[in-house]
Amino acid sequence: MDAKELRQRLIRNIDEQLTGPAAERQMRPPRYESLFASLSGGTVARQLGAGVDMVPPGKQSCPYHLHHSQEEMFVILEGRGTLRVAGELLPVRAGDVIFIPAGPEYPHQLINTSDAMLKYMSISTQQKPEICEYPDSGKVQAWAAGVKVVQRPADALDYWDGEP
């Protein structure tokens, strides 16, 4: 394997990912907006996932949620904001590293409460299957290889539904 191929398998540049074809703008006005790029996609990483988000002032990148399997870490690269976690609001700023274990004790969400861009890297352990809960909306999401389901527990089918 030559150096070029090795680099493609092992190294990603945050700025290149955010300005390249891997970048994806995610929006749901009026609250949610972010420019997201995967960092680990296409690499040889198997147990760690990484991405980078840029969140405009006054916006959030995703809903308040918790994971049952995956542990996450966030590194604030630029700007300031608020970590909504476990029912509290904690200020965060460039240089902060946030650790969120799996489980119901630490639902979390990053909010850009400043007047400048908030840029952060997220790292997760990528366990699958995974179940994610959204306390504000009462939704539950479950995913594994080839399957993804989002619903509210009240809408769940009976175990025997549709069986002969």
TrEMBL record:
<dbReference type="InterPro" id="IPR051610">
    <property type="entry name" value="GPI/OXD"/>
</dbReference>
<dbReference type="InterPro" id="IPR011051">
    <property type="entry name" value="RmlC_Cupin_sf"/>
</dbReference>
<dbReference type="Pfam" id="PF07883">
    <property type="entry name" value="Cupin_2"/>
</dbReference>
<dbReference type="InterPro" id="IPR014710">
    <property type="entry name" value="RmlC-like_jellyroll"/>
</dbReference>
<feature type="domain" description="Cupin type-2">
    <location>
        <begin position="54"/>
        <end position="123"/>
    </location>
</feature>
<dbReference type="InterPro" id="IPR013096">
    <property type="entry name" value="Cupin_2"/>
</dbReference>
<protein>
    <submittedName>
        <fullName>Cupin domain-containing protein</fullName>
    </submittedName>
</protein>
<keyword id="KW-0479">Metal-binding</keyword>
